[in-house]
């Protein structure tokens, strides 16, 4: 496909490209533009019919949107920015430097500029930032016939026509009605009779992850957003929610790997961005980690009298770290998906206690036998066996309890993941190991 | 709300409960049933009007669905199972033991049983398993008037009426048309003129994660599923895709934490389930980890002559493990979201090389100074400083390259995460450390 388009572009067969693009999905055209050399991307974009062009633009990755805007003539930029849906435009502006946003805001007509400024006024990661103002509103007094007429007229410019929101005279949200219900009803019935008045909505300052979990729970196509006075100000549609879920999961995964969140895509990040989001964590952890050195120093005499003790340090704390990482991973994810509610905490902790004990015993036997075989010293085998059992059990409990504790303190449980848990387990593990060793070997 | 319902249930004020439930969203009623004592849950379910009951049932968590089915009379079970949407029924059957599924299949009428058997015949985690057969089909020859009539008639039993699929006489999928397009068109226009014939579909054996990524890319409400002969056999709707994304992310996160995948929710897992999904990983890693013991044994003379060397082992390999975990986390997630395409691999590896070098130098200085201050020995400070720099740089590269390598080998990159990376880094880190030590301290 791309090779074909490049050939057509090189031969300036613009008419053929036009007809080729007309039968292609906007999502695919965006992919094509992203894969072409920049100057060709601009040409393809200009060949698109107007309504298709905006969809293609909205589907482009952020870095390509910026690039494309720079390559367009100013009247094309004006057209694109004014025609975009307000929520996609907010997303575009969020990623641009402030002076570029100011320049682009000046290119919007009065109405679109008012909308853009309002949306940018909401806090990051809230419903207000996600929503679009292109929603369909009906009034309680409308008949089905009138409603259908309204929908037909408004359809081309609305993000969805499948859920319509009903407002009272003072613009308060009073109900919701699906196009399905309208189509199935008699022409003379009124919206007031038909609508569902126990409508579920979110507020402009509701966090995006909460919006996502509400939409997932109710299987909504769209959800209305209201202000403090319950006036309808926007809607959020299903496609934005998929992006939110992916974004929130990425943030959690990164945090669990000890990396701070970022809005930029991996490929766009600079070396400096990468260092910033990683260095602070590594420094905190190395300072914390240096306690392990102090602990080992206090056991210097044990280490000098039985050098073989040091051979098993990585095995012991590594295995403890792995067990702790497993527990914390499972608990953090269960809290994030809402699977683990606080009333179940004790049940999970109790079960994990048994699991940790069993896994500890199992690994203790494996590790102890291996240590005995490699050192030829039964007492070292016993020391490793006992220490491993205890450390794995403690690590499992630590990995379970710390995320739950963070949740109680309203901190993000994802912080209590692999890197932090292994560091805690290192310290606890070393103390356990040398106390067991002192007891078994040195008495 | 719940306290209120419990009081009403205790006083047997069923009429009040009924009217209370009528204005409540099915998703909320499911939550209420889940929070009530089991015998009350069954009563509330029976009080629901028939069409609402099925939605409530479909919204229940799997363990509650099983419990509720057990508490219902057999004619109620028959009604519920026959009225469920086919995709939700597949999900229910997937989680039940085989003999229960056989019993329930026998309760279905011929048509529903045929559908249920067909859907269960597809492989786990494929489009066939996710899809529903309740889709709306139109024919090319229909006029808009005829199409609207068909839609109105079929609407109550279809999962969505907002996308309609067009079939030729031999049931091949030839196009898609949205209800929006139909509503905006003239009554005499035909579907053939209006439909989009470059329809994007998936096959029954397409993996669910691929279905999710296609739907996310095109912002679809629903996607058609075809068999090998391009005959339309089902559709997958947006709400199922949100579940798939959450499920796939959970699986990735678990694997990254060294825990095998499971279909059951954390709270429902038994001690034994938990041990099974964790033990195999821990055993593989402890065997791998035991190389670290062998390595340390070869450096016995160094360790006996400078005991202080052992004090820094946890600090060194811990910090290396953290840096490696960071890199692998970011790369694995970027591969999973499709952000990192193979053509960008070298760019990312190159950048990570510089990042690892800078972070290594930074941590080397911090660690080296700390080691010098705590040991009072400049050469130990230098040894730790150099080793830390090298280990962090190597760990960053390892964490970047291993997931990309796994991807090339068509393995799941999520395996190359924290637990495995830290184990690899332990071994590489120890060799580096003692070689540097031998060079700096012992020559």
Assembly of the depicted chains:
homodimer
Cα distance, first to last residue of chain A?
Answer: 77 Å
> If classified by CATH, what would the architecture of the largest domain in chain A be?
Orthogonal Bundle
CATH superfamily of the largest domain in chain A: SLC41 divalent cation transporters, integral membrane domain
If you average the pLDDT of chain A, what whole number results? 85
CATH class of the largest domain in chain A: Mainly Alpha
Number of helices of chain A: 23
Low-confidence stretches of chain A: none
Give the class of chain A from helix and strand content and strand pairing.
Answer: mainly alpha
Key attributes of the depicted protein:
homodimer; 443 residues; MgtE N-terminal fold; CBS-domain; Tetracycline Repressor, domain 2; 68% helix
Task: Briefly summarize what is shown.
Two copies of one chain form a homodimer. Chain A contains 23 helices and six strands.
Describe how the helices and strands are arranged:
The structure is a homodimer of 443-residue chains.
Chain A: H1 2-10, H2 14-22, H3 26-35, H4 38-47, H5 50-59, H6 62-71, H7 74-83, H8 86-94, H9 98-107, H10 110-121, H11 127-130, E1 137-139, H12 144-154, E2 163-167, E3 173-178, H13 179-184, H14 191-194, E4 202-203, H15 208-218, E5 222-226, E6 232-237, H16 238-256, H17 271-298, H18 300-305, H19 308-311, H20 313-336, H21 345-375, H22 378-408, H23 418-441
Helix pairs in contact in A: 3-4, 3-5, 8-10, 15-16, 17-23, 20-22, 20-23, 21-22, 22-23
